[in-house]
Design a protein that fits this description.
The chain is mostly helical and 214 residues long. Helix content is 79%, strand content 0%.
């Protein structure tokens, strides 16, 4: 029985590795990631989002297409004049799908918290008290899952800064985390290759927090 379990586990790992290394999947993801960088309006954002969702339909064991679709829904709520709550709710549903494929993933967990940050920003007075602890918990969990994840640390620094400004306390903790995240972004940059599909976003937000610490 033990031998069977080990064999099954190895097979599942191999299947996941094989699909992640599939040239067609990599090429499709690279095309969408390149298109993501050129988004200038909501229609283009929707088009790229739908492209990621088509990849998700064809690659049901991959979490990254759902992740990027959720990220685009979140960014659209920040950038464009749309039904922001609706877009963020759709992002949450996509994050749930990604989480089912890759539970306990630091990137997915951090993105979940980021979406909640977006929802809080739409109604700070009505949602801050209930949602802020949830977002902080998610960022803390994301950091514990992967202490090398710059987005988890950067997003936590944003929350810490917001809370410091709200309560009139010092920004020291937020600043320390922002500087830590910038160091992690430098480490991450050294890993990026042409076929790198994992998330790399967020440095701009970290720079914004750090700029308030001078």
């Amino acid at each position: 029985m033990k031998k069977y379990i080990l064999t099954l586990a190895f097979s599942l790992v191999w299947i996941a590795f094989a699909q992640a290394s599939d040239p067609a999947f990599i090429a499709a993801m690279q095309k969408q990631l390149k298109a993501k960088k050129t988004i200038a309006n909501y229609e283009q954002s929707q088009e790229v989002t739908n492209g990621f969702l088509r990849i998700a339909d064809a690659s049901d064991s991959e979490w990254l297409p759902f992740y990027y679709a959720a990220l685009l829904k979140t960014e659209a709520a920040f950038r464009f004049d749309i039904e922001k709550d609706k877009s963020l709710d759709e992002a949450l549903e996509l994050v749930k799908k990604a989480d089912k494929i890759a539970p306990g993933n630091s990137e997915i967990t951090a993105l979940n918290g980021y979406i909640l940050m977006g929802k809080i920003s739409l109604d700070p007075a009505g949602r801050g008290q209930s949602m802020s602890p949830q977002a902080m918990q998610l960022f803390g969990k994301a950091i514990n899952l992967d202490r090398e994840n710059p987005r988890a640390v950067s997003l936590m620094s944003q929350m810490e800064l917001g809370m410091a400004e709200f309560f009139g306390t010092g920004p020291e903790k937020a600043c320390g985390m922002a500087r830590m995240s910038l160091d992690l972004y430098k480490k991450e940059e050294a890993k990026i290759t042409d076929e790198y599909l994992l998330p790399t976003w967020g440095k701009m937000q970290a720079d914004q927090v750090a700029s308030k610490c001078n």
